[in-house]
C-alpha cells in the first residue's frame, strides 16, 4: 500500500484553508496552487503579475525542496490567470524558472483567485 506524506515548510505560505501545501505519494509530489503570497506576511506581493509569478514559483520551489525535490523535477504545471492578457508577462517570468526540459503545462483564465491574486500555479513533480 502506498502511503501519503504531507509536505510542510515554513519557507512557503501556510495553506489558506483545509488543505496541504504538498503531498508526497510514491514517486510523485503534488503541490497545491501557490499564489504570489509573501510567506512572512501572508499578503500578495506588490508589483503585478510578474512579481506575483516570481513569488508563486519561489513558494513552489520551497515546497518541492521540503520534499527533497526541485523545479527541475516538475513534470506538469497548471497556471491560473485572472486575466489572459497577462499571459506574456507571466510566461516571461515562468521561462526564467524553467529554462529547459520543460514540464507539460496548461494555462487557463479564471474569474477570480483568492486574495485577489493575479496568478496561481500548481505543479506535479517527481520526488
Describe this protein's structure.
By secondary structure, this protein is an alpha+beta fold. It is 24% helix and 30% strand. The chain is built from two helices and six strands, in the order E-E-E-H-E-H-E-E. It has helices at 48-66, 87-97; strands at 4-7, 22-25, 28-35, 74-81, 104-109, 119-126. Strands 1-2-3-6-4-5 form a six-stranded mixed sheet, covered by helices on one side. A hairpin with a 2-residue loop joins strand 2 and strand 3 (28-35). Helix 1 packs parallel to helix 2. The mean pLDDT is 97.
Tell me the β content: 25-35%
Cross-sheet strand order for the largest sheet:
1-2-3-6-4-5
Helix content class: 10-25%
Q: Give the helix tally.
A: 2
Q: What's the main sheet like?
A: 6 strands, mixed
How many strand segments?
A: 6
- Which runs of at least 5 residues are low in confidence (pLDDT < 50)? none
Q: What class, by secondary structure content?
A: alpha+beta
Q: Judging from the principal axes of the Cα atoms, what is the shape?
A: globular
Write down the overall mean pLDDT: 97
Q: How many angstroms does the end-to-end distance come to? A: 18 Å
What sequence of helices (H) and strands (E) makes up the elements? EEEHEHEE
Radius of gyration: 14 Å
Give the tags:
single chain; 127 residues; alpha+beta; 6-stranded mixed beta sheet; 2 helices; 24% helix
Topology record:
Layout: E1 4-7, E2 22-25, E3 28-35, H1 48-66, E4 74-81, H2 87-97, E5 104-109, E6 119-126
Give a quick precis of the structure.
24% of the residues lie in helices and 30% in strands. It is of the alpha+beta class and 127 residues long.
Amino acid at each position: 500500500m502506498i502511503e501519503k506524506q504531507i509536505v510542510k515548510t515554513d519557507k512557503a505560505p501556510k495553506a489558506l484553508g483545509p488543505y496541504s501545501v504538498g503531498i508526497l505519494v510514491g514517486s510523485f509530489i503534488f503541490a497545491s496552487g501557490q499564489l504570489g503570497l509573501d510567506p512572512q506576511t501572508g499578503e500578495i506581493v506588490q508589483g503585478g503579475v510578474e512579481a506575483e509569478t516570481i513569488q508563486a514559483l519561489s513558494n513552489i520551489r520551497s515546497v518541492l525542496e521540503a520534499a527533497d525535490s526541485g523545479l527541475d523535477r516538475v513534470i506538469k504545471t497548471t497556471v491560473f490567470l485572472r486575466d489572459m492578457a497577462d499571459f506574456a508577462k507571466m510566461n516571461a517570468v515562468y521561462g526564467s524558472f524553467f529554462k529547459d526540459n520543460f514540464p507539460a503545462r496548461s494555462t487557463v483564465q479564471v474569474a477570480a483567485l483568492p486574495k485577489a491574486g493575479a496568478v496561481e500555479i500548481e505543479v506535479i513533480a517527481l520526488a
